[in-house]
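Lab notebook, bench 4. The sequencing result for the construct came back, and we need a structural model before the next group meeting so we can plan mutations. Quick request posted to the team channel:

Model the 3D structure of this chain.
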Amino acid sequence: MKRKLMTLLLTCFTLAMSAQYVSIPVKYKGTSPNIGDFLTAMLSDSGSDGDACESPFGESHNGVKEAWNRYKQGKAQKKNVNFVVDLKNGYILYEDKYGNSKMRIEMCYWNESDNKHKIVATSMAYYTNGKYDPGQYDGISFYRYSNSTKKLTDEDDLRTKFPYGNENCEIAYTLPRTGKDIIATSWYKNGTKKQKTIKWKGNGF
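Done. Here's the predicted structure in token form:
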């Protein structure tokens, strides 16, 4: 599950680059979609097998899908899973704990200033003994939802503003449960860490 497994990572990258532009239809009831509708669309688009190279949730695709189904059915989550759904604020948190390790996945959305689009963000971060320990699917992704087409499209221009880090540090991102600003935490090899707030400016960071 570590980034050292470069073969699989490069394979996923190649598939992503060669794939057609992502366009995910979103079905919903009412006047506008909520965070659950966006999650359902993303889980459905990745197929029933949950191909880790295609899913925005990587190899945790099936875990997120099971947690979402349990939530909708009113069932308790597995003992190792923490699943938070905040429909009012447009936020979802999935945590899968095993031993001294934890996979943390967040998802949220907010309206753009033009009132015609929404930004949907997902982030993944893997921790060991409470410290950031990047896995091969870690990172942050963005999608733009159009009120007119009712579809999600990937936004690489936004993603490029959020680097993975460098030889001195790794960067993990925390999505907002309220508001629109993202927290970037740089974990340095010397054991220190530093946080920075990345502010949303209406139609970009």
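DSSP finds four helices and eleven strands in the chain.
Will bring this to the meeting.
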